[in-house]
Design brief:
elongated, 25% helix, 260 residues, six-stranded mixed sheet, alpha/beta, two-stranded antiparallel sheet
Length: 260
Amino acid sequence: KNIIAQERYLDDVFENITISSDIVYGNNVSIFPTLLGQVPSTQDLLMDIYSPEGDTEISRPVVIMLHTGSFLPTILNGQATGDKSDNAIVEQCTQFAKKGYVAIAVNYRQGWNPSSTDENVRRSTLIAAAYRGLQDTRTAVRFLRKSVAEEGNPYGISTDHIAVGGIGTGGYVSLATATLNDYATELTLPKFVDQTTQYPYIIPDFFGNLDGTTSGVLPEIDINGDGIPDATNVTLCIPNHVGYSSEIHMAFNIGGALPD
């Protein structure tokens, strides 16, 4: 008679899971309002935390999952996806939790201008959207470390075992999280420079640094494209959980790409 033992983290060892929804892991500035002719505004950054029900382990590996959606909200992007509640994200997080992981579905800031007739605008706003997704993912990682250090580890996690995975557009962000570490050598390459102005698409003084731990302030913003500034000294990045590490230990992608 063969007895097959279920092995935690490889097999489903829990029948049920618990979900803590809409946990605020940070607050930062969204440029999405500019698509509606308004100035950028702050928004809470939210995550859903999936845990095995009845688990006694208190130091569990973390899998952060990033949804797809073309950096635009559901429906507006022409898709049925674009949120941490996407079916594929819910299913993956559920399966990870049943295997004993703590799985976290993260919402990140959205917004860029895919309809511009100017290729530089399309390219620069898309790169900036991926950059904000990177900052938000690293903010989520720091939030988790802070929860262990300052709140008594309420989610029962190990901060030595953090993976980030992404589906589709989220794959762009997970790959960026794994690979972008040095602005000077990585984001000043010719492909990331506006060929009209000769300025890099991403300027940390405006957008904040790669981790989102420095402030970013745009001297002026022209929302309607008439050449006249609609606002000055516009904050684009607010630091969250400064002092904690943004380090991850593994990244994977289901789709997505590295910008090239």
